[in-house]
Structures are given as structure tokens and as C-alpha cells.
Amino acid sequence: MPAYEADLSRFAEYDAQVLGMSTDPVPSVKAWAESLDGISYPMLSDFWPHGEVARKYGVLRDDGMTERAIFVIDKQGIVLYIDVHDITEMPDPEDIFEQLRKL
To answer: At the N or C end, where does the chain have fewer CB atoms within 10 A?
Structure first.
């Protein structure tokens, strides 16, 4: 998440909005973002119904956690790119910029 914070100006060059999402409740998401020295982009909670958004996007695991997933969604709401990693892996932000360049 801090890597995306550091790259916000690059995302802005593509008119892209970064959002974070977790299945944790709002107070936990807020505390976690603050523990990372603050995240200025929106952090969303997919807590109730638990993981409903993650389930719809196919990234909710049986244990109630989510995979680490990146979605590029255009302004019409069409999903153009999905990159799913194990929760222990950090995706390379350059892969996202590669997809944004294609838009």
C-alpha cells in the first residue's frame, strides 16, 4: 500500500484513482492505514456483508480472507485487468502502469 501512495502522481498521469479494500471493519482499516504513516487514497471496508465485494470479484478465500488482487476498472465500470497474487506476494506496480498505458 505504501508503494501505491508513493506512486500517486504517476497514477494521476493516467487519470487513475487508487482504492484500497479490506474485509476488516472500518476502524481496523483506518488504524492499519494510519500505522503505515497514513494512506491518502480511499480505503474501503468490505466487512458487511463480510467480503461480499471480494466474493463478487472472485477473490474471497474460504477462510474469509481475500487474495491480494489488483483490478483496473474503466470509467464505465468495465474490468479491464485482473492480477491476483497470494496474500504473501507483493505485485509489481509497474505491471499496473503497463496496463494503464494500454488504455
So the answer is: C
List pLDDT tens digits, range 34-63. 998 879 999 999 999 999 999 999 999 999
DSSP 19-51: -EEESS-HHHHHHHHHHTT---S-EEE-TTTTT
What gap in Å lies between CA 76 and CA 94, rounded to an integer? Answer: 24
- The single-letter code of the amino acid at 84 is V
**Cα gap 49→55, rounded to integer Å:** 10
Q: Which residues pair with 21 in a beta bridge?
A: 44
First to last CA, the chain: 23
Cell 493516467 locates to 14
User: For residue 5, which phi and psi values (nearest 5 degrees)?
Assistant: -60, -45
> Is pTM beyond 0.90 here?
no
Cell 504473501 identifies what position?
88
